[in-house]
Design a protein that fits this description.
The protein has 127 residues and is mainly alpha-helical. 50% of the residues lie in helices and 0% in strands.
Length: 127
């Protein structure tokens, strides 16, 4: 879920910048800095992003990015999106068809996995 992970990183980053700068700066300031650099023909990549984040939060900003980049979730504080949203923890389910994805193109089921939902629903491989 890389896109969700990035979103939560940015929500958390915005809250940390706003808190550190007492509401005078936010993620918007970093995005605008990136935009201005890009329009001026400057290189804008991860190293430049990390420099901007470090200027706002110190080394902690780099560490937070490394956590997100390593595939771990950033969990913002519960009140970060108040009063419009509340944070709830839910169980995430991964949909597994129970057979090879190529079967969707060929319309002939192959690679049926014993005991999975597809088999329990009565799907069978054609012999």
């Amino acid at each position: 879920m890389p896109y969700g992970r990035g979103l939560f990183y940015l929500i958390d980053l915005n809250a940390k910048i706003s808190s550190a700068r007492r509401g005078r700066r936010s993620l918007d300031d970093l995005v605008l800095a990136v935009l201005h650099r890009w329009r001026d023909g400057e290189k804008v990549g991860v190293p430049e992003w990390l420099d901007l984040v470090e200027a706002e939060l110190g080394v902690t900003g780099r560490d937070d990015f490394a956590v997100m980049e390593a595939g771990r979730w950033t969990i913002p504080a519960p009140d970060v999106l108040d009063p419009h949203f509340t944070r709830e923890q839910t169980q995430e389910y991964v949909t597994e068809l129970g057979f090879d994805l190529a079967s969707l193109e060929t319309r002939i089921v192959s690679g049926l996995i014993a005991g999975w939902a597809a088999e329990e629903a009565g799907i069978r491989e054609v012999m």
